[in-house]
Amino acid sequence: MVKKVIDIIPPEKLPAREQAAEENFIVQPIQLSQFVPPAQAAEETASEFFAGNEEKPEAKPRITYSPHKIEATGSGAFAKPGKGGFFKGLLLKLAIVAAIVGLAMYGLDLKFAKAVVKIWPATSMVAEQTKVIVDSAAKSVDIAKSTVPGLVIAVDSTIKGEAPVTTMKDSKGKAQGTVKIFNNYTAAQRLVKGTRLQAPLEKFQPALAKDEAPWYRTAEEVVIEPKSSATVKVAADGSGEKYNIDPSVFSVPGLVGTAQYTYIYAQSFEKFVGGTQGNFPEVGQSDIDNAKTFIAAQADADIKKELASKVPEGFIMLESTVKITLSDTVVSAKIGDPLAKIPCQVQGKAIAIAYKKSDVDELGEDFILNKIPVGSIVDDPSLKVVSSDGNTDPVSGKPSALLNAEVRVYQGMNDSDLKKGLSEKSKTEALLFLTEMKDAEGNNAMKDVKIQLSPPWRMNIPRELDKIEVQTNFE
Question: In 13-71, which residue ranges form alpha helices assigned H by DSSP?
């Protein structure tokens, strides 16, 4: 609340008429120099009275006190805002907020401004073939002569194998083995050659047929003293694998009905072998000849495999340069041997030439890049150089390799020039700039174009080239 200071004594209350006039009176500010003290004013009044016809001076305005509060309507320090002042304050606040947001967006734009330009150019393939000479005497790549150094690889090895026997013979083999005959009787016992020994029927697998006898016959005559034994060779009475029985105890059928039958018997301790029936392999002259061919073919494959294992990493062996020499063939079998396979071996030597993959790649790349049309841009990752065996060079007599090189190319601008062309353009201008690019034949150089700007409110591509990313796509 403003404190009132009264420095002039207020007049007495005026009549209502004068009071109304007084209320409509507007106090005008006066200078202190215009203020006249009461005493001086009385003197001036008396002088005017006695002056007679002298001209009276203009009356000075009286300063009176008004008890009514005067509203301030100006814009001074003590003025109160009206309705218009409220809107002015609101606008001021909005302006401040807008300025802060603008500054923040400007700062973010400076830091995170970026443009990603994705292009799908129209492409074509350039493919060419050339020949490269592989010279084992060369020390380095000679681009002018299309020559690369060759590496000589050699092996010396003994190759062993087993050749199959194809000759067959009808065979009916009889099982053979050895038995020990025991004589627990009090008198010596004489057994003639061909004496029958019978094994238990359950020992034969599969079971014997009705016309097959379960007998084995001694191969020689033998006399067995009392309380002693004798070892004798025996053979089956019939043929077939079923007579290859496991160790067993044998009776002597010829002693049935005598006292010696329960005291004299035989026993085997190993399985019988040799019982066969059917067609079985038997080495013939053709099998000997085939064994030599077989081991030569195996040696060829094995030596090539050994040569390949000796090729250093990063090298390629020319198959056409492989030379193999075989000697000292050995076939370990003779005609008539009952063998299913013939052991054999041969001594082999081989030599071959290999070249370094990076050397032919260097020649292939130089060759294909010289075939690129002027103004084309090369898609480096698509460059491929494939080599294969070639014919012997008729001039130098040296081996050669065929190179097939291909690369993808397209029309347009490299990334550096493209960024310069797009710098500071609006998105619309940049899209128009890219889509209107033409190749050497006047066709559209771009199949598709996409541009992404960040932050989201950015409308132009940044000026700084490092803030422009160009992504070239081919699929």
Answer: 16-23, 38-50
If residue 108 lies in a helix (H) or strand (E), which one and from where to where?
helix 83-112
Phi, psi of 42 (to 5 degrees): -65, -40
Burial, 406: exposed, middle or buried (Cβ in 10 Å; 0-12, 13-18, 19+)?
Answer: middle
Q: Give residue 145's identity as a one-letter amino acid code.
A: K
First-to-last C-alpha distance (Å) of the chain: 82
Separation of alpha carbons 173 and 271, rounded Å: 15
CA of residue 215 relative to chain centroid, distance? 73
For 170-279, CATH gives: 2.40.30
Q: Are 386 and 403 in contact (CB under 8 A)?
A: yes
Please provide the DSSP assignment of 129-175 as one string.
Answer: EEEEEEETT--S-BTTTTEEEEEEEEEEEEEEEEEEP--EEEE--EE
- How long is the chain? 475
Find the angle CA(88)-CA(93)-CA(96) to the nearest 5 degrees.
Answer: 125
User: What pTM was computed for the model?
Assistant: 0.53
Half-sphere exposure of 114 (CA within 13 A, CB side): 8
Splitting the chain (475 residues) into consecutive groups of 10 residues, what average pLDDT does each group show? 44 50 45 45 45 51 50 46 68 77 65 87 91 94 94 95 92 92 95 95 92 93 95 94 95 94 96 88 94 95 94 94 94 93 96 95 92 87 92 91 93 87 91 87 88 88 91 87
User: Which amino acid, one-letter code, is at 468?
Assistant: I
Pairing of strands 114-121, 468-472: parallel
- Whole-number Cα distances in Å, 387 to 316, 369, 390: 9, 17, 9
Hey, which residues does 401 pair with through a beta bridge?
132, 389
Task: Provide the 3-class DSSP secondary structure of residue 248.
Answer: coil
Are the CB atoms for 459 and 426 separated by under 8 Å?
yes
d(CA 45, CA 48): 5
Beta bridge partner(s), residue 118: 450, 471
Beta-carbon-side half-sphere exposure of residue 322 (alpha carbons within 13 Å): 19
| pLDDT at residue 474, rounded to an integer | 86
Tally of CB atoms within 10 A around 3 = 4
CA 400 – CA 127 distance, rounded (Å): 20
Residue ranges of the domains in the chain? 1-70, 77-108, 151-166+281-356, 170-279
Angle, CA of 333, 338 and 341, to the nearest 5°: 60
To which H or E segment does residue 300 belong? helix 285-309
Q: Where are the alpha helices (DSSP H) in 315-450?
A: 357-369, 415-422, 427-435
Neighbours of 36 (CB within 10 A): 9
- Return the residue matching tokens 């006292």: 259
